[in-house]
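Re: folding output
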Amino acid sequence: MNASRLLRVLGIAALAVATRNVSLTAQFAPPAPPPVDLTKVPAGMPAPKTWTAQQDHQDMMDQLGIKALRPGPSGDEKAPNHANYDEATANPYPNLPDVLTLRDGKKVTSAAAWAVRRKEILEDFDREVLGRVPAAVPKVTWTVTRTVDATVGGHAVVGKQLVGHVDNSAYPAIDVDIQMTLVTPKDAKAPVPVMIMFGGGRALPGDPPPAPRGGGPGFVAPPAPAAGAAAGAPGAPAAAPPAGRAATGPPAPSDPPSTEQLIADGWGYASLNPTSVQADNGAGLTRGIVGLVNHGQARKPDDWGALRAWAWGASRGLDYLETERSVNAKQVGIEGVSRYGKAALITMAYDTRFAVVLVGSSGEGGAKLHRRNWGEAVESLTGTGEYHWMAGNFMKYGASEATFGSKNPGDLPVDAHELIALCAPRATFISYGVPEKGDAKWLDHQGSFMAAIAAQPVFKLLGATGLGRSDDYKTERMPAVNVSLLDGQLAWRQHDGGHTDGPNWKYFIPWADRNLKHAPPASAGK
């Protein structure tokens, strides 16, 4: 890596750290697509498109033959088109695709048959929901740019700042440099488990916190969400909140940060900045890793969206951890909250090398059933605001008028229960908070619990333990707040905090220890 690129990457990484402790209403607006060097466009190749999200969205509608999309529901409960919060009308498509029935109608009754069914489900998600990762994605080369000795919660650690440069020799006009930090206990006697945490790219321990990104004289925070609106909902900030919501979230008053809890328990942690892989906006689809493989041109309908790209970035982070002698690469987990909770679940579903996942408040596109009419809906993700998370083909299921007629969520070939099932039999923890503290009804906690219930049969088939409830997703209701379902490899807990997984870390870590057979150091808890 040349000096100018290194300085630029380190500057961006330091800047991204700033939002770790910024409140939800002081998050910054979505960043502009990264600049390109037009002098580096190879001869005979077109320059990268510089469309707005609206232009890119319209191009995909044109490709698909969509003339009109149904509007998404409003997060403002006083609006005429407010989201539904009536359980009596919440299940217009009550029958989910059978996760254990093959396309030919045969029932899946063995691990071998599940392997076939798993490929069928992945193909449906690739084609219709999340998009395909190209067969020939450029190689990533990781570089350690800085190493420090420091302490976390009174424990000695080694911190490394890392940059994963994606080979852009085929299209030098677009740079992709993945930002990640790794912190491990200094005195560990053996390789340690590690949680990769989607977030803003944390500074190394001991670094002074820089000024908040976008802060300083003249900074104006985006407006606070409307009453009842969730992050990303109508009435919320346009891209609230991007990388700035730290994966740890605000801890419960008596809890130390998740990073301190992990180190004290003999874990390491890595922080990966997903927007260094792919921008969190539609205008950025001709940049980042998606734009790089497309040479700066528009996506095709089954090309990957940002969620799948972020998951790909996490897998490349795991590639690096497999080379680290201080890390037990067989015990690496993935974690995220909100949109990064979606990405964490997708990472776990696709990459079977990950051993454990903590899925925080993921909502639509994550653990929530697409077929549920409650809060955030499929139509919320097919408009211009968040369509970039998904494959272009996903827009078909919000179409009211198109050359193919119209489609609705009931036409989707897969649903969220199958995404959770793809994680089986590995340790999968679904986490939510409560609406009263800011984990809005918009996220559909009950719909996410139904999806976990419907995924149980796959965990059981593969010899794992589910939630300890029946498999009847139509009748099962989520347990009371702070009641834990943590006896199996599939786990659920709704804490009494807000839009964060912070209060659940003290439950997640011992649960993960038990599933991974990890013994904390003798000093843990003292």
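--- second protein (sequence, then structure) ---
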Amino acid sequence: MSPYAFGAVCVAAVLGTLSVEPLDPGIRVVVAAGAALLGCVAIVRADFAFARAALAVAFAIGALNAQWRHDLAQPVFERRTARYEGAALQARAGDDGSSAFTFAISGGPAVEVQVRGTPPPLGVPLVVRGRLEPFDDARNPGETSEREIQSERGLSGRLAHADVVSVRPRAYANTPDAALARAHAWAMERLRERLGDTDAAILAGELWGERGAVPPDLRAEFQETGTIHVLVTAGLHLGVVAAIALWILSFAGLPRAWTCAVVTAIVWAFVAWSGAQLPAVRAATMLTAALAARACGRPALSWNVLAFAAAAIALARPPSVAGASFALSFSCVAAIFVCARPLERLLSGWIALPNRVREAAVLTLATQLGTWPLTAAVFLQFSPYALVANFCIVPFVGVTMILGALQLALAWCAPLAQAAANLTSWSLAWTLAVVRALSAANASTIPMTPAPAWCIAAYDVAVYCAVRAWQRGAWQFAAIALLAGVVLTVAPPRLPDGRLRITVLDVGQADSIAVQTPGGEALLIDGGGRLERGASPGSDSQAELVGERTVVPFLLRCGIHRLDALILTHPHGDHAGGVAPVLRKLSVGEIADGGQRYGGHAYRDAIDLARAQRVPIVTPRAGDVWRTPDGVTLRFVGPSLPLVAGSRNDINENSIAFLLEYRSFRMLFTGDAGAAAEQRFLAEGVDLRADVLKVGHHGSAYGSTPAFLAAVHPRYAVISVGRHNLFGHPAPVTLDALQNAGARIYRTDEDGAVVIATDGTGVGITSMIGDGGR
């Protein structure tokens, strides 16, 4: 009997689960390759003969279980606005003076609610009025579905346009979740009393995975240094709990089986205290499998144990297996299995270190070696200092957890609680000093394009082969295998399809359009954002958030690290907002700016940053022509001199407008230009004919006049517009005019991002949601 037969059966159950789950095509290829490899091994290996039927049964069970659970799931559908009773469980500060909280509807799902001002008290009865709706699927190419992300947090939907109608602060919601929320609120208050907000937020993240208390800028610093896992209760924290419990029970003289059972109970009690979040449940499942193996006299850490834990999670929570966090968790443990012992021997031969220091260095090296391609793909950045940061911080996590728990346990005695808090603050001061110093260092993050799933899988195979080759003395082969895996991950092969590709991103009530030419040139037309109202001091402009969260990630996913040009049609925040984030993350050849005076923070920030980086700023005018080496031409049709003055909105009317041409294909871009600019185009006799019109000013009623549309005569019209916007865009009169002109209409509020692809003759248009077009 093969020692790996049991593990192979468990892997078959995981593959069966993945065969049913909705997956990215690249990941599906890897899953199919894994299933084929497992089948070939079962056929070729004689000692697997008895297990062939078991593999088939396990695969079928995984697939049927996943399908059954999908059928049982009760998706949240949009309903009319109504009142819902329940209790708030978690709360966090929003980005714009709002706050969000998890709301457990009585007898219903847990949903997210966003309201203005401070969140309501946790764990008390509430009545909230809003429209219950599901989270979004991905709305831009390559984007992770918000629905998947929130599902891992245990949230089924959200209450849109919500208001808290009533609060009963002196009452208690009689549910376990509400009681836990009150306990967390009490614990957070005790921590804040003696540690302050920042230290308390970090410690709350370690002790029960509190997500909302850490300030966004500090969270970004943890992410930049590759230590964000410290703030999420998962394997590291449960490992600390298990290690402490094992150490304490070692003095009790209990039989091994009883010790493992007690530790398992303690681990799951900690999971319950942390709110049973998915990362903690996944880690507890792995620890339970390891402790069960130890209780039975088997090695606690083995491939069979790891495979069993994966199968258990796949059967209990099928959708979670398709997530990146599942792959990160198991890649981390698998890397320790493969690399820890060889690395320990290597370090022992190089330098004499204390056992604990050597162990910390080995675990840090192994986990970083195994997970950096995945973390780079998930966070779109590589953290060069992650190895140093984790080596310096991770050993202190257990210390702060023990001291923090001690502070809470001693809350009844102020002097002792303060003593524990003082010790905790020293440990947290070290953590913060390391994170802030490394995040402020040069090249603290390197923007990364995520490697395809097959490249990451090939890297994992290369690491395994390199370790095995090194153990057998084949140093050269080991080095070549490892180098090949790294190169394949950092610079995966990409074959251009020879087409011009224009992506109108879904950036809400804003504009941002990426252009990729057949020869690999890249242009960005506007950066998204939002209209700015009032002052936005510093770098915290709300207009810039869309650039950070949508525009820059899209460009990186497309492999764009350098823009040949960035065209800013006009300086309003809903077009200029994402420009500064783009400049911070990517290289930009030049910026085209209309040259209008405007005091909005996002625009000024972008221009000042461009000047600081010595990015050339040019001001194209009507009649100017740009050409790329691969045959794409930009013919500018506006603004003309003298600039439009005295209109309803001179800034909009003087938007940069141009025709993009490639062979026989033409697309017209007009920014937010309205009727006054359109009349000038017609008066100047500009040839406006275009296959595709990017409709001006989000489809407002002040543009897209019948005469202008007759001159353009577009086959397709694309409107970049936000859902439920306050302006009523697109205006019914504009939609009627476009339909009368014979244009097929795409709009980002209903269709998500719209992608136009052409070889210069035919035109193909696709949208992220449904078939699009109407």
